[in-house]
Amino acid sequence: MESSSRDNVLLLAFQDPERCGAAFREAQRLPGYRQEVSVARRTDGGLEMLDAHVRGTGAATVGGGAAGLALGLLGGPVAALLGFTAGALLGNAAEKHNLEEGGEALITLSARVPEGGAMLVLYLHERDPEPADELAARHGASVERLSAGELHAEVEDLKRRSGADGPDGE
Asked: Which of 95, 110, 116, 144 is the 20 to 30 A CA-CA neighbour of 78?
């Protein structure tokens, strides 16, 4: 997940999971919205993923395929087909990598989900915190903001402590 100083991960904690669902739908209209996931902690302590949304899902695959097709057209129909296929595969690999990073981040953040409550995790390119803060206030949620870099550091720390990179840190 590439980041700038304005790429933030917002953690909106809810005591009432239903309020999280209403905020989930509304969050997609926030300026700079990239993606979100909502999770709830059951009374037995387990986590349940409620919903997820990524703006532009499939765009890398389609864009890579289109770029490959355009380049392949210079070499004729077979080259166009090969270019499209190669471009789509590269785009798909990029999307798969982003999904894996998102899963690691969610595991890292799972300890912050309140018992019997829910959490909305938003990834925004945020110019102004006010719209997201207003959303949280309307739905009775507390807000914690992390820069994308801070979250990445937390994920790497958790991986290092759990030995997820292998015995030699590779």
From this structure: 95
Q: Tell me phi and psi for residue 136, to 5 degrees.
A: -60, -45
Number of CB atoms found within 10 A of residue 20's CB: 25
Task: Please give the structure tokens belonging to residue 157.
Answer: 């720390």
Enter the pTM of the model.
Answer: 0.63
Instruction: Tell me the per-residue pLDDT of 99-132, one tens digit each, with 9 for 90 and over.
Output: 445 456 666 677 788 888 898 888 889 999 999 9
List the beta bridge partners of residue 123. Answer: 9, 35
- Measured distance CA(112)–CA(34) in Å, rounded: 21
Note whether 63 and 91 are within 8 A (CB): yes
What distances in angstroms separate CA 85 from CA 68, 142, 165, one per listed residue?
7, 45, 32
Q: Which residues contact 141 (CB under 8 A, 6 or more apart)?
A: 12, 13, 14, 19, 20, 23, 120
List the single range of 10-14, 47-51, 60-64, 134-138 with lowest mean pLDDT.
Answer: 60-64
CB 57 within 8 A of CB 91: no
**Type of residue at 64:** G
What is the reported pLDDT for 108?
Answer: 64
Helices (H), 5-58: 17-27
Residues 18, 129, 136: CA angle, nearest 5 degrees: 15
